[in-house]
Design brief:
The protein is an alpha/beta fold. The chain is built from 4 helices and 11 strands, in the order H-H-E-E-E-E-E-E-E-E-E-E-H-E-H. The N and C termini lie far apart (71 Å). This is Leucine-rich repeat-containing N-terminal plant-type domain-containing protein.
Length: 230
């Protein structure tokens, strides 16, 4: 190989040349995720086994050098659907633990879908590379799993508008030392007597949303007073 050829391929590696073909383990993980979902609008129509270029599948973002899956943008579009149209843009069904095979996943957005009152999967707490997690308005219910506190790299967390979500102990927040944005609006936190302590110890927090979360009487006012908002 002559010097010119060597320089050419070196340039390609530096500029992020990739072929769109993610690792086979990650491609299979995405296909298993799709298999568990109900997708009436065929939003995931590009996710097919015969298409090996999984980094070009809709909603999938890969690293431009390694082709590792980094992001999944699976939020349902927010535009209003005709009430007489039988096709819905929301995803339904179950969320496969195959996501655990996406070792470099840093961004996961499942907002505005309808998962029918299932609990937030506990295995989400093992997605250790996550920096962004948006589960807002996605039809989750039950207790917020404390396993989310294992996401030590998380910077953005929104559980907003899952009004059947509840929690009595927010101790898991103490594991999120890098968290900058937290939205627990319109969840049921009326028994979370310790929320003040754990929110107040988040060293990186810049933005907090707690509207409509039914906080224990008097504690929201005390928190606002301490922050100078009274």
């Amino acid at each position: 190989m002559n010097l010119l050829t060597t320089l050419f391929f070196g340039f390609l590696s530096l500029t992020g040349f990739c072929n769109g073909i993610c690792m086979e383990e990650e491609r299979q993980a995405l296909l298993e995720l799709k298999q568990g979902l109900v997708d009436h609008a065929d939003r995931l129509s590009s996710w097919v086994a015969s298409n090996g270029e999984c980094c070009k599948w809709k909603g999938v973002v890969c690293h431009n050098l390694t082709d590792r899956v980094l992001q999944l943008h699976l939020s349902a579009p927010t535009q209003i659907v005709d009430l007489y149209d039988s096709v819905t843009l929301q995803l339904f069904g179950k969320i496969s633990p195959s996501l655990l095979h996406l070792k470099h996943l840093s961004y996961l957005n499942l907002s505005n879908n309808d998962f029918g009152g299932i609990q937030i999967p506990k295995f989400f707490g093992s997605l250790k590379s996550l920096k962004f997690l948006d589960l807002s308005n996605a039809g989750f219910a039950g207790k917020i799993p404390p396993h989310l506190g294992n996401l030590s790299n998380l910077q953005y967390l929104s559980l907003r508008d899952n009004d059947l979500l509840h929690d009595e102990n927010l101790h898991w927040l103490s594991g999120l030392s890098l968290l900058k944005h937290l939205d627990l609006s319109f969840n049921n936190l009326n028994k979370a007597s310790n929320w003040f302590h754990f929110v107040n110890t988040l060293p990186s927090l810049l933005e907090l949303h707690l509207a409509g979360s039914h906080l224990p009487k008097g504690q929201a006012e005390a928190f606002s007073s301490e922050l100078g908002y009274a």
